[in-house]
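Example record

The entry below shows one chain as it appears in the dataset: sequence first, then structure tokens.
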Amino acid sequence: MTHLLVMMLFAALVGAVMGMASRETPREQFRYGLKVFCEFVVIGLVLAWLLYFLPF
């Protein structure tokens, strides 16, 4: 598996758990889980893009 797929799998699992643990109705759970998933993916891609330019 590529790093991107692993990151998206992790984001999906965390989003599902956070959605179920922190909201009451299924609609709120889904929306919050989707929000957490998107935040994880976007932040991960932004960090990857920024770290690409560091000389190691």
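Notes for this example: The CA atoms of residues 26 and 53 lie 41 Å apart. The first helix runs from residue 3 to 22.
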